[in-house]
Prior knowledge:
Shape: globular
Mean pLDDT: 89
Structural class: alpha/beta
Radius of gyration: 13 Å
Number of strands: 4
Strand content: 15-25%
Number of helices: 4
Order of helices and strands: EHEHEHEH
Largest sheet: 4 strands, parallel
Low-confidence stretches: none
Strand order of the largest sheet: 3-2-1-4
Amino acid sequence: MSADALITVAMPVRNCASTVARAIGSILSQTEPRFRFVIVDDGSTDATHAVAASFDDPRIRLISDGRGLGLPARLNQIIADARTPYIARRYCGKRVWYAVVKAILRRRQ
């Protein structure tokens, strides 16, 4: 993980194997590199975890315990793990604009 991370990008996932690689790729292609990327698998029964685990990037922290605790519990887990002053939530099925992390930080500073 980047010690100088300014923001945690949070992506709770569950059974989105067909879209998770595209979503992860869009986050990793951000123009602002100083972020942590926390992906929490909420008990997926498809290949979501395997696809997410296939990415080798030090900014990624993949959390998976095999249990389906639900979105509120997973968001609380992400907040507890954040270690940065800002958190941006992203969705498994969505690509994001290449400079969204930079834009979020610019608004906060």
